[in-house]
Amino acid sequence: MSAFLALIRAAFRRESEHHSRNVFRILGSLVEILARISIWQAAFGAHPALYGITLSQMITYSLIGGTILSSWDATMIVRDVGATIRTGAIGSSLLRPVGYPLMLLADQLGVRLFDWLLVSLPVIVIMGLIYGIEPPASLGHAMFFLGHVVVSLAILMLTGILIGLFSFWVFDAHSLEWFMRGLLAVLSGGLVPIWFFPKGLAEVAHALPFSWITYQPMAVYLGERDLAASALSLAAGCGWTAALGACVAFVWSRACGQVVVQGG
Amino acid sequence: MAPIISAEHVTKVFRQRVRRPGLLGSLRDLAAPVTRPVNAVDDISFAIAAGEAVGYLGPNGAGKSTMIKMLTGILAPSSGKVMVLGRHPQANRVENARQIGVVFGQRTQLWWELPLSESFELHRRMYRVPSEVFARNRADLTEMMGLASFLERPVRHLSLGQRMRAEIAMALMHDPKILFLDEPTIGLDVVAKDVVRKFLSRINRERGTTIILTTHDLQDIEEICPRLIMVDEGKLLFDGAVADLRARFGARRRLVLEFSREPGFVHLAGAEPDGGEGHLRSFLLNDDGRSLVELLAALQADADLRDVRLHEPGIEEIIRTHYQRRIETGRAA
């Protein structure tokens, strides 16, 4: 556990070294949120609500869903794993007495925590002050939302590690990365909430774990679920987390025999 | 004593893609790739006892790193068996990793963006080194390797020599029983090489740490390793004491005679002429037990010999002779 926490901290420290990059990440995130909000303003036009969702709710969805619950940057892990395999740097990781998926998880958590604190939070505060942000529907909803955030993080990280591990078979990590990016952008509800999806696609999205990354937590936050439904949704998310964890363990056990360490 | 490292008929085969020429060829490669097997390690066996220092030597592409990767558990052999400290290193990668130290000269184990001291701290936690052991080792290694002046500097700011010293120090923080080094002196200047060699030799002597070192710098081996394993094209060529290498490869001593005037053709019984011009003549001695005095006495009295020099072949020369011979036979075939 101590090693795991230390690795998270190391990733956090590493991120903090890139000062100029971090400034641009905040700027980039601000522009992205601005674009999302503008699109929803245009879509709503003069309507106070669409399908029972108000513009103010959608702005809140964009703000939180586009920052701390966003799946976009999490696909970087696929690129990173691919690069370590291509260059043979994976060898250095495998020399350490820690499970490789666990190292990946710690590293991603460090990056994510840094992002939350130094990119997401400032962006939410700045844009919230300009456009307004709705509070959670109730204290109970807030508690369930926090639970969902943990599940969201776990599902996102595990999906990234799972797809990253496929780089052991598919040498071109770039295609995997874009596959994951596209898949998650749609099915997490990160771009468009699932309540606006056509029926068939909505059913697909509900049957997969990815909606727990953005959509389910936001539906709870905004009070679109009552507390009982929120509890059920949280339980289902935990189930998905366990299933993905088992998948990662299985794929890693297969990948171990597949390791080819490039270079001398 | 039972060996702590053993390899029994170890073979590692990689599949290498064969590319076919032309556009049609690349399309066919895409649809149905053709691969051919390459034996990076080919039926190698050896055993190493605790406390030994062994040089694993061979030219580029001889399969040195592949063997190290199998011993450290990051690759599995295609056939045969490797055992390290009584375990299969790949099946027990994490347990194996805890008891060995590894330095890859061309890769870093340190955290690039963090100060060196934090890499050590991370290492302590990952290897679960008890605090008092860590404190002692850190102090000792920092002193022996002269790390104090750059402990708080980010690793990416270190010079190659500083980094390599740090890599080796870190690999020893958890008191590993075995230290694997893959080209530890590559790219270092003469002074840094010397520091590293002296240090490794001392660690082997004083701590009894078993050392396996791959290199193509023979001086590394001469200074650190009494035992040498030589491989080429995946196969084992030699395994034994460095001192026995000469006998095994039949490298001969070279005798250079210097005359006061151009001597013309010089015949020396028990030696084979091997070039020379002007006042110098060079011979390769047949190792038939004849003494140098005897050889020289046979020279004509009026030869006007001014100086005599005898060169013992270093391992470098022995191995160069071997590789050259191999290339020549390859060409002839």
TrEMBL record, chain A:
It comes from the Bacteria. InterPro entries: ABC-2_transporter-like (IPR010390). The keyword Membrane applies. Signal peptide: none annotated. The chain crosses the membrane at residues 23-43, 49-69, 113-133, 145-171, 178-197, 227-252. Keywords: Membrane, Transmembrane, Transmembrane helix. It holds the Pfam family ABC2_membrane_6. PANTHER family: INTEGRAL MEMBRANE PROTEIN, SLR1174 PROTEIN-RELATED. This is ABC transporter permease.
TrEMBL record, chain B:
GO terms for molecular function: ATP binding; ATP hydrolysis activity. InterPro entries: AAA+_ATPase, ABC_transporter-like_ATP-bd, ABC_transporter-like_CS, ABC_transporter_ATP-binding, P-loop_NTPase. It holds the Pfam family ABC_tran. Gene3D superfamilies: P-loop containing nucleotide triphosphate hydrolases. Residues 18-258 form the ABC transporter domain. Keywords: ATP-binding, Nucleotide-binding, Transport. PROSITE patterns: ABC_TRANSPORTER_1 (PS00211), ABC_TRANSPORTER_2 (PS50893). SUPFAM superfamilies: P-loop containing nucleoside triphosphate hydrolases. Belongs to the ABC transporter superfamily. This is ATP-binding cassette domain-containing protein. It comes from Rhizobium straminoryzae.
